[in-house]
């Protein structure tokens, strides 16, 4: 007989403490079940069960073997369920967390199309720029931007995120165009307060030469330096900062998924492009469960197909 069948029988006997009951549950005769347990003990070279006419109990070896057998049987069941879930229609409530600006500008329209494609899924979406704990707060998946630090989460890359320093034409006419990062010390800057560096803006240690290609889909691993800038306005929302930049209040550093339309319309113009550490990543992250639900899988795949590899908000932008 197959070893897994023997393990399943042993686990049943250990659970019920009865050959008769265990055999009935598995469609065997009592004598066949007893004979298989005897053969299993002979193969292992150890007695697993103490048998008397009145009761069955586990030996010390049996207790140890049972722990491993239960884990193996659980793993086999999990493997079967994971394959079955690929064929099952995704359904249920999907709890999603996402940054405010990205959620309103891009995820909202995507969610509408996703719900049309998957009518048995309901979405509960929380738009907030704070860092959420997926496990403690019960989220199925979150959209995150930038470097991921939590190794307990699985991340799937959705698309690149490109950072641009920009200001309105009116501001640059009035205050001059910065030619190097150090020039920013003489300017008013608009600070996104949820960024860990605050008023310390990162730039390349040396400028990118004209025509040179940036490294891959991100260049966060290049040599950098920090420039302390003057904060004229601080806010925890990128759209607020963009409106201030368009009004000529100061210079802003924003991803193109926020400022791409304003750049295309000329309401702000890019600066210091050759110095910018510009590329990061937008990812979908979810807890590292051994069994990924079909509703999470189809949602993550949907986002990757919709936005990757060249997001629509970057199309047509003339950036270095």
TrEMBL record:
GO molecular function: DNA-binding transcription factor activity; sequence-specific DNA binding
Pfam families documented for this protein: HTH_1 (PF00126), LysR_substrate (PF03466)
Gene Ontology biological-process entries: DNA-templated transcription
Domain of life: Bacteria
Keywords from the named record: DNA-binding, Transcription, Transcription regulation
Keyword Translocase (UniProt): no
UniProt domain HTH lysR-type: residue ranges: 1-59
Record family assignment: Belongs to the LysR transcriptional regulatory family.
Protein name per the record: DNA-binding transcriptional LysR family regulator
């Amino acid at each position: 007989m197959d070893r897994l069948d023997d393990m399943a029988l042993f686990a049943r006997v250990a659970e019920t403490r009865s050959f008769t009951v265990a055999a009935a549950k598995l469609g065997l005769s009592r004598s066949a079940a007893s004979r298989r347990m005897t053969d299993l003990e002979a193969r292992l070279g150890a007695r697993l069960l103490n048998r008397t006419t009145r009761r069955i109990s586990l030996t010390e070896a049996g207790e140890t073997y049972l722990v491993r057998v239960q884990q193996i049987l659980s793993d086999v069941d999990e493997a079967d369920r994971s394959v079955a879930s690929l064929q099952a229609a995704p359904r249920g409530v999907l709890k999603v967390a996402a940054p405010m600006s990205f959620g309103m500008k891009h995820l909202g329209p995507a969610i509408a199309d996703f719900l049309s494609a998957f009518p048995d899924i309901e979405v509960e979406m929380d738009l907030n720029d704070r860092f959420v704990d997926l496990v403690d707060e019960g989220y199925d998946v979150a959209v995150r931007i930038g470097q991921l630090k939590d190794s307990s989460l699985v991340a799937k890359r959705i698309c690149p995120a490109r950072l641009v320093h920009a200001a309105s034409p009116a501001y640059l006419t009035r205050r001059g165009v910065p030619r190097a990062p150090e020039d920013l010390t003489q300017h008013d800057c608009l600070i996104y307060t949820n960024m860990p560096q605050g008023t310390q803006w990162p730039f390349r240690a040396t400028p990118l030469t004209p025509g040179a290609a940036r490294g891959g889909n991100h260049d966060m691993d290049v040599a950098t330096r920090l420039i302390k800038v003057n904060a004229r306005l601080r806010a925890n929302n990128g759209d607020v900062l963009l409106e201030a930049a368009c009004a000529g209040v100061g210079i802003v550093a924003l991803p193109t998924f926020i400022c791409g339309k304003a750049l295309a319309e000329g309401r702000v113009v890019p600066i210091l492009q050759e110095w910018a550490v510009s590329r990061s990543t937008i990812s979908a992250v979810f807890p590292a469960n051994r069994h990924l639900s079909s509703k999470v899988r189809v949602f993550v795949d949907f986002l990757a197909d919709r936005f990757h590899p060249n997001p629509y908000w970057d199309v047509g932008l003339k950036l270095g």
